[in-house]
Amino acid sequence: MPPAIRIDSWDDWVRIYNDVSVWRGLVDEICVQEGISYRRLRSASANTNAVFLLDHALVLKIYSPFWDEYDFERTLLEALSTGDRVPVVEVTGCGQVVDADGISWDYLITRYHSARPFSELRPALSDAESVSLAEQLGRITRTLHELDPSRFVGPSTDRVWSDLLTQRRRAAVSELVAAGVLDDALTGTLEALLDDAIAADKPESRVVAHGDLGADHVLCAPTEDGWRIEALIDFGDAKIGAPEYEWMPVWMGFCDRDANLAQAYLQAYDPNLLDDGEFPIRAVAWSLLHDFGADGLIELWQERSQPAPIESIDELQSLLCPQSIFR
Fold this sequence. Notes:
Elements: H1 10-16, H2 20-34, E1 41-43, E2 50-54, E3 58-62, H3 70-80, E4 91-98, E5 104-111, E6 116-117, H4 118-121, H5 127-145, H6 157-178, H7 187-200, E7 207-209, E8 218-223, E9 226-232, E10 239-241, H8 247-254, H9 259-269, H10 279-289, H11 293-303, H12 313-320
Antiparallel strand pairs: 1-2, 2-3, 3-5, 4-5, 6-8, 7-10, 8-9
Helix pairs in contact: 5-9, 6-7, 6-11, 7-10
């Protein structure tokens, strides 16, 4: 039985989640269970679960005890891998493994994909190539959002979404005010905006949203016809929720706040949104309600060394969904 891994707090997790020496016993036990072997084990980057590469052949994700992600991500990937309309990596194994303290750890194993993330490629791509990939991402996202969410509903999906909205509605504005990003005078206006967005969120309008379509999670490869998106990875933040929940990581992550890429994405996803005068304000609301929307805005604010807090909705919109995207 593998040694116990004691996690009592988020700080404990951050300290050890990508430390190969801590996880090797658990990894080896999983490999025994799955009948696989490896020569080299290394930690993957840009993750908050414990994710390891086995010989650049397989990717093993051991899930954090702080989130309820395993069942939904596994179900989604297994369903999506049966077709090619939403490209994903192949699931090769999944289950639970128990450590010496009797703690059960969920894990998922997928095939390693040799395509490269858009974040690595973009500096060398032409504007036309980047726009083409943004268009592809828009079409793939639309396909994902057109799936029947009832296929993926589990015992925790509604609760996860409801808990997220409750937590973000309570904390989003106050976090930004405390960080100096927002003027306190905007509090009432923004809280009303968030209330309106939540009130408009009806079960029948919800979609399967990836939740983290940043540049690191879109794998691309060259083909005879140009660059192509080969796979979306890391569905750990996926939710059955509002379509606009997808916007913040696409805009701030994949597009890196490039209006041309965002316009190409929206044109491919739904060209009607480019003429929808209400979309930008919905995008602002759902950016603040996103699980890591406030963190992203605070980080952007610090990078830009802003001298004073935002005092108007228009100024906030210029950061989260600017008019330059639209016709």
